[in-house]
């Protein structure tokens, strides 16, 4: 992976107004950025978050159920 080149210039002395200019070279996005943009944005991103939330709910529910069963089991 190559780091992106960024240049920030802050010019306060030229005018009475502050000026900030940024130049970001976006030649090519990395694989991670492409996967993130595909899976975490838009309608697919919303669907993924809903599925993750349901999955996490069931994992916590089953873990609590099994833990409670063994803690409160009659001897």
TrEMBL record:
Alphabetized UniProt keyword annotations: Membrane, Transmembrane, Transmembrane helix
Superkingdom of the source species: Eukaryota
TM annotation in the entry: 53-71
InterPro entries listed in its UniProt record: SMIM1
Keyword Transmembrane helix assigned: yes
PANTHER family with a match to the protein in the record: SMALL INTEGRAL MEMBRANE PROTEIN 1
Record-given protein name: Small integral membrane protein 1-like
Gene name of this polypeptide: LOC100617881
């Amino acid at each position: 992976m190559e780091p992106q080149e960024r240049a920030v210039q802050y010019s306060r002395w030229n005018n009475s107004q502050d000026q900030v200019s940024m130049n970001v070279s976006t030649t090519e996005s990395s694989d991670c950025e492409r996967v993130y943009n595909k899976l975490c944005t838009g309608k697919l991103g919303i669907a993924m978050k809903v599925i993750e939330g349901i999955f996490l709910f069931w994992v916590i529910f089953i873990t609590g159920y099994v833990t409670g069963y063994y803690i409160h089991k009659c001897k």
